[in-house]
Amino acid sequence: AQSVSQHNHHVILSEAASLELGCNYSYGGTVNLFWYVQYPGQHLQLLLKYFSGDPLVKGIKGFEAEFIKSKFSFNLRKPSVQWSDTAEYFCAVINQGGKLIFGQGTELSVKP
Amino acid sequence: GAVVSQHPSRVICKSGTSVKIECRSLDFQATTMFWYRQFPKQSLMLMATSNEGSKATYEQGVEKDKFLINHASLTLSTLTVTSAHPEDSSFYICSARAGGGSYNEQFFGPGTRLTVL
User: Fold this and answer.
1) Residue in B102, B109, B111 nearest the CB of A98
2) Using one digit for the tens of pLDDT, what is the confidence trace for B45-73?
3) Interchain CB distance below 8 Å, A43 and B105
């Protein structure tokens, strides 16, 4: 069965620091990958997605992610974080049954 | 983007009672709706998939008689937690997807916090 693993449970950064959140998936075939963000008290929102094509995907709010097939990874990056980026971040993959499988989530705290 | 609402946002009930949670797609028709459960500091776990007009498909380990799902229209799905117990306390999140393609985007509701005393 497909699975998604996020290595960092809680990341604490200062404003303007660079961010990279790790995500690895288990399936070796064609994958469709997502990053979602959940701001405090709000619903899940799609940050970006990869289906095919350019492995470097740009999303909303300055986020990007790179699909590296050889490493089974889809890490999320942002060059300079802001206090407003404080949230929970979830990596997800669509499995063969068409269902979203989520990683454990990474809590990002940005200190002003 | 598309909007999905859930009602209520939080509910507290006594053990043994049943609780109904509504999930509505406000500005699009949702062919498929999904129900997830999220424990504190953990990921979202898919409970079931519901398609309008047909029976829901439950994930392994989810009791269909305990978590009743009805997808009566293209804009409404309900989850009823029957005879709730404290271990059912959790955060329940629904999502809705327009169209039948698996890769169409899912839009998530804000979640319902259920506390069973």
Assistant:
1) B102
2) 999 999 888 889 999 999 999 999 998 88
3) no
